[in-house]
């Protein structure tokens, strides 16, 4: 679908007005990601890594962007990803021409150097295109210094970053606005721009053709065939998103952005440019449901290393390099409308019991595919010990709220212990099975409602959609009456218009306090499938996977009434659950055990 650009969307020499979140596309290479708006402006990019300062921060009201767009403002926009990649092709249709701009972050990637590729091509007619590159490191606080044009290559530097731009020898450098230029292309003609930003002064040749070929080759090897799965195209896109968000160091960021609002002006804005162990486990489990893959190995390796390093004090979140998440602070920027300018995240210091349960499930899945490394096997022992010592402690839970005796956390641990017990030999397996029985018995005593469904917490009788996650994984069993009762209770109390919400907020009806939670919709599909309700499973799957924008990216929440995305994007664990649904719904219903 193509869309007419609004007359008030600015020009290349002016600011970059925001678009609704559903309209942004992502390009990513595993070490960092950029958001592209429908006008062809890259408005968000951190360099050189995910948690580094942004050099393009127009998305949250800062300075810095990279624009390529037709000079004729009377056009409509569209675009698509090349299947199984995060190579994005923007398409603009004017009265007398059709123009495409192919964007990608070059792969294979390295942590200290990014290469951004932009190829403009006129499909019909003749077009003038305007380019402006305005790099502003430090979230817009700094300008590049010492700009120089030599042998057709622009160079500049600032704040420990070195920039090279190839493909704009006739452009000019304006100290206020950066590099500016125009290109006139006839039908069939193409023009390449190559931007390098590195922590070291670049010396290698920047050949656009070679870089494109290497990137295409890398994507062909990164995303497997999904033709046997439900929704094959969406499944491959989910793989591509997960690959794009996963660093070579193993860590997968929860999302590419910070401070995008879950609810306008509510203060619920967070920095998701970090690796949550739970999210990483969700991604690994989703991959394992399809088959062995390097993303499964990445998840196992990163998770095992964190548990071996920190033991009982394992954090919920880390940087992709395994370092602690920095404390929250404000940048002094306007923020995305309704959002804020917050970076860092307080969740890095919480205790979240369910992360150990998800890790044990991940390790068991790796063992099933003969991918359990010796380090991961040692991490199993550490994780089981941590559960033994801490399962009675109140924790912050999946939703990172106040410390309470959350039912979901205990059931996740039971599921993890049972899964790993099935693959451990002799006494180790019996130890895990006995511990699972003890945790379940006490959780049943505290958290099972007299009506037969699970309470949200030991002190809260309300419905909780998070309970669908362990149910989809095997706890409680399909023969346990609480499974059917809890699914029915959640569906009855937390569903509107075919979408699922997390829980009730005091004093606010569903849909007012927050959007539908897409992770929960996919978890409901998995739970229904496991309980043998195939029609219900596919209904939930199809309804939930419709809650994305034109680029096919999911945020954490979906505003059902306005049909808009809410929160940071793309949200990795939503894409992971979509992939798991696509894999499991194409096979038998019940999981083993």
Structural features:
593 residues, alpha+beta, 16-stranded antiparallel β-sheet, three-stranded antiparallel β-sheet, 31% helix, globular, disordered N terminus
Computed CA radius of gyration, to the nearest angstrom:
24 Å
Strand count, sense and barrel status of the largest sheet are: 16 strands, antiparallel
Question: Helix share of residues?
Answer: 25-40%
How far the N terminus sits from the C terminus, by CA atoms, comes to 45 Å
Average pLDDT number: 94
What class, by secondary structure content? alpha+beta
Q: Give the low-pLDDT segments.
A: 1-12
Q: So what's the overall shape?
A: globular
Please report which band the strand proportion falls in: under 5%, 5-15%, 15-25%, 25-35%, 35-45% or over 45%. Answer: 15-25%
What's the total number of strands?
Answer: 25
Counted by DSSP, the helix tally is 13
């Amino acid at each position: 679908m193509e869309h007419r650009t609004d007359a008030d969307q600015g020009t290349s020499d002016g600011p970059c007005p925001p678009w609704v979140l559903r309209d942004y596309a992502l390009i990513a290479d595993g070490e960092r990601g950029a958001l592209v708006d429908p006008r062809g402006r890259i408005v968000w990019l951190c360099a050189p890594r995910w948690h580094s300062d942004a050099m393009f921060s127009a998305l949250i009201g800062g300075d810095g962007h990279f624009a390529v767009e037709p000079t004729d403002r009377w056009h409509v926009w569209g675009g698509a990803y090349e299947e199984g990649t995060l190579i994005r092709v923007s398409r603009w249709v004017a009265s007398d021409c059709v123009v495409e701009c192919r964007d990608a972050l070059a792969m294979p990637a390295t942590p200290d150097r990014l290469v951004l590729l932009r190829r403009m091509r006129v499909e019909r007619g003749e077009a003038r295109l305007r380019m402006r590159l305005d790099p502003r490191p430090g979230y817009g606080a700094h300008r590049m210094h010492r700009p120089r044009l030599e042998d057709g290559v622009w160079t500049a530097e600032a704040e420990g970053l070195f920039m090279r731009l190839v493909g704009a020898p006739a452009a000019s450098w304006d100290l206020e606005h950066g590099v500016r230029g125009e290109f006139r292309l006839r039908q069939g003609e193409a023009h390449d721009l190559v931007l390098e930003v590195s922590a070291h002064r670049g010396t290698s040749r920047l050949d656009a053709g070679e870089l494109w070929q290497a990137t295409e080759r890398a994507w062909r090897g990164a995303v497997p065939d999904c033709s046997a799965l439900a929704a094959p195209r969406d499944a491959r896109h989910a793989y591509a998103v997960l690959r794009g968000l996963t660093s070579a160091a193993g860590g997968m960021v929860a999302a590419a952005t910070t401070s995008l609002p879950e609810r306008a002006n509510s203060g619920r804005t967070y920095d998701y440019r970090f690796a949550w162990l739970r999210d990483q486990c969700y991604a690994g489990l989703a991959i394992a449901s399809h088959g062995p893959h390097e993303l499964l190995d990445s998840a196992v390796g990163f998770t095992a290393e964190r548990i071996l390093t920190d033991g009982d004090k394992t954090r919920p979140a880390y940087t992709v390099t395994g370092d602690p998440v920095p404390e929250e602070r404000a940048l002094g920027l306007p923020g995305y409308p309704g959002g804020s300018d917050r970076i860092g995240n307080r969740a890095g210091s919480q205790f979240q019991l369910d992360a150990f349960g998800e890790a044990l499930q991940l390790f068991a899945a790796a063992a099933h595919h003969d991918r359990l490394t010796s380090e991961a096997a040692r991490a199993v022992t550490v994780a089981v010990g941590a559960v033994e010592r801490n399962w009675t402690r109140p924790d912050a839970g999946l939703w990172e709220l106040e410390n309470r005796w959350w039912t979901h956390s205990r059931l996740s641990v039971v599921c993890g212990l049972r899964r790993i017990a099935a693959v451990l030999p002799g006494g180790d397996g019996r130890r895990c099975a006995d511990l699972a029985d003890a945790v379940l018995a006490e959780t049943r005593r505290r958290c099972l409602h007299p009506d037969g469904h699970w309470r949200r917490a030991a002190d809260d009788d309300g419905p909780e959609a998070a309970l669908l996650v362990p149910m989809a994984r095997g706890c409680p069993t399909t023969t346990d009456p609480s499974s059917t009762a809890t699914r029915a209770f959640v569906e009855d109390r937390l569903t509107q218009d075919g979408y699922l919400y997390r829980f009730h907020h005091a004093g606010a009806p569903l849909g007012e306090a927050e959007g539908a939670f897409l992770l929960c919709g996919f978890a409901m599909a998995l739970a229904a499938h496991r309980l043998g309700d195939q029609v219900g499973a596919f209904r939930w799957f199809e309804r939930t996977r419709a809650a994305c924008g034109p680029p096919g990216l999911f945020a954490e929440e979906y505003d059902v009434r306005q049909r808009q995305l809410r929160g940071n994007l793309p949200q990795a664990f939503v894409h992971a659950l979509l992939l798991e649904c696509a894999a499991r719904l194409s096979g038998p219903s019940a999981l083993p055990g």
